[in-house]
Design a protein that fits this description.
This protein has 6 helices and 5 strands, in the order ααβββααβαβα. It is α+β, with helices and mostly antiparallel strands. A 5-stranded antiparallel sheet has the order 1-2-3-5-4, covered by helices on one side. The chain binds guanosine-5'-monophosphate.
Amino acid sequence: MINQLFTPMINKLFLTFLLVTFSSGSLANTETVSGIGKYDDNNVFSKILRGKLPAKIVFEDEFVLAFEDIHPIKPVHVLIIPKGKYRSLVDFSSKASEQEIIALVRAMGKVAKLMGLTEKGFSLMTNSGHNGGQMVAHLHFHLLGGEPVNWEEALREKNTTDN
Ligand code: 5GP
């Protein structure tokens, strides 16, 4: 009797949990994506570009958008993206026009300056594909600063363990 009463209730709760977890994207957020293949408009940066998702924009011009990362790992953590539909650097470097490439590189310098990073320095990096840990399938560069980024230390540690 108790089983008959509680089993459907527990099943319903479990289904609701699955629905909430997947629709909020909390599990999908840890998944990496491929850096190659067809561009998919469903990625979050495409939605930001189309004004469907909010973002704290720090720079914009005809070809580039820069906005704050939603989960900053340094005091300054800005994402710099081309407005064109490119999944990764592989895609962008082979398909983008010279105008787009120049605009992106120029924007990187401008945003670093705008965020007050040029004097003390910064790190600029992109993740490509599964091994790179890319999680959003629209090319983006992480501009990190405001305190030492310590890639150098991390690489030195890795080289010591490899030898
Ligand atoms: P990846 O691992 O692909 O190089 O980095 C993706 C970055 O995008 C992560 O640092 C993550 O915090 C950020 N991110 C994911 N979703 C959003 C979002 O909706 N808005 C903003 N501003 N950043 C996001």
